[in-house]
Design brief:
Structural class: alpha+beta
Oligomer: single chain
Distance between the termini: 36 Å
Largest sheet: 8 strands, mixed
Helix content: 25-40%
Number of strands: 18
CATH topology of the largest domain: BirA Bifunctional Protein, domain 2
CATH class of the largest domain: Alpha Beta
CATH superfamily of the largest domain: Bira Bifunctional Protein, Domain 2
Number of domains: 2
Order of helices and strands: EEEHEEHHHEEEEHEEHEHHEEEEEHHEHH
Length: about 425
């Protein structure tokens, strides 16, 4: 008999269900199993007096074993799980579990050692479903406005962007690197005439950072598009895809997010507030007596980001705020500049930067000069070639999918949010 998901069980209909035995309770007269599949949970109730064969099969079976039952779902006012229980006629043990090595209140690093067990929880399963919904909604929106999804190489022949914070890889008789981002290839797509592209893919940063929001491998949602007039066009598109993503998440999971994560899904209104960096510094000092440290002048830091989010809510009643006017020394060489100021932005949400975006410099001579300013020579020679033979004005941005999910659900750390976390001290499982 074909398996039926618990969510779709019909009363008094002979059915087969399979899933994890999350709890097993053995009483004098009854045996109760809480069975869970991807759609939900149900209580399986076995009357010992009339089901000797089933009781014998359950002998020695521990929680987290995988079981298959055939029987009928019935309504019962005595059952807490939606007033439904499953009365089985037959049982097959698909996989017998040993005693778990993971305690219920284990610390996060121990949980990561057994992440495949930790992920079995209803909360973690829900988290990944919500992330999938969010990403898919943004992808669908982009496709609806004529964007093309591409897939760029993650093994590259030259250290990208800054030449630092990259992982070296032995590549036959030479050294290759894991890509920090698809930035150069996104712009190659612009020079190829693709005009509108996006990619959802891994990116790698060899940063020896141990914060709650940094990881050495993450999933990046990258977007680049041509024939823009300014970086305002880039900000406008980012507003649109975030609104599309949050609208879909709210539609599908608002209730569950409130119940399980105690967070509200707030769909922002457009336009998001914008503020120049120097004006922001003044506001943070005036309102919160905060001065940006000298080594961060021209940029933001974690504390400034938290206060900026607070300012956005107090001043505009908005969870999002764009910050513009960063110093050229703090931005990549490929950002277009106007009056020597990069034409780009950071987007802050719930106290954390989720995006750096910009209009790119597409004019070969200016781009080459800005690369030389940063001390970049041979490492970017292949990249500069893209602009020698004509390239339209363009811009783009990238969003860290994992950081976005962490902030949406109020999860304290990327370690808990990611399917499998990678950091300076974490390379397995």
């Amino acid at each position: 008999m074909q398996r039926t998901l618990i969510k779709y069980l019909k009363e008094d209909t002979l059915t087969t269900i399979s899933g994890w035995a999350t709890k097993i309770r053995d009483t004098k007269y009854m045996l109760f199993i809480i069975l869970q599949d991807r759609s939900g949970m149900i209580q399986v109730s076995i009357d010992k007096a009339n089901n000797e064969d089933l009781v014998n099969k359950m002998n020695g079976i521990l929680a987290n074993s995988v079981l298959k039952f055939t029987g009928k779902m019935v309504k019962s006012e005595y059952v807490k799980l939606d007033g439904k229980e499953f009365i089985p006629d037959s049982l097959e043990v698909l996989s017998k579990a040993e005693k778990l090595p993971l305690e219920e209140n284990a610390d996060i690093d121990t949980r990561l050692d057994y992440r495949w067990i930790d992920l079995r929880s209803e909360k973690n399963n829900l988290m990944l479903k919500i992330q999938s919904c969010f990403v898919n909604a943004m992808r669908e929106y982009l496709i609806s406005i004529d964007f093309t999804e591409i897939h760029t190489p993650k093994l590259i022949g030259a250290a990208s962007e800054s030449g630092s914070d990259v992982f070296e890889v032995k590549y036959f008789d030479r050294t290759a690197y894991l890509a920090q981002s698809p930035q150069f290839y996104k712009q190659m797509a612009m020079a190829s005439g693709i005009e509108r592209m996006f990619e959802v893919a891994p990116a790698f940063r060899a940063e020896n950072s141990n914060t709650n929001r940094h990881t050495t491998e993450f999933t990046s949602f990258d977007i680049e598009f041509a024939y823009i007039d300014s970086y305002e066009d880039v900000m406008s598109l980012e507003e649109d895809i975030l609104i599309a993503g949050l609208t879909k998440v709210k539609e599908c999971y608002e209730k569950e997010i409130k119940e399980v994560f105690s967070k509200d899904v707030i769909v922002p209104t457009k336009p998001f507030p914008r503020i120049d960096l120097n004006t922001l510094y003044k506001e943070l000092e005036k309102r919160y007596n905060y001065q940006i440290p000298e080594f961060d002048v021209g940029d933001m830091n974690a504390e400034a980001e938290k206060l900026t989010a607070r300012y956005a809510m107090e001043e505009y009643g908005h969870e999002f705020i764009f910050v513009t006017g960063f110093a050229k020394t703090k931005r990549a060489f490929y950002h277009m500049r106007k009056n020597d100021i990069p034409e780009g932005y950071d987007l802050i949400w719930r106290g954390t930067e989720i995006t750096t975006g910009a209009q790119r410099e597409h004019r070969y001579d200016i781009l080459k000069k800005q690369a030389e300013e940063k001390g970049l020579g041979k490492d970017v020679e292949f990249y500069l070639e893209f602009f020698k033979y004509g390239c339209p004005p363009h811009g783009g941005f990238a969003i860290g999918v994992d950081r976005l999910t962490m902030l949406l659900l109020g999860i304290p750390s990327l370690k808990e949010e990611m399917f499998l976390f990678r950091g300076p001290s974490r390379l397995t499982p």
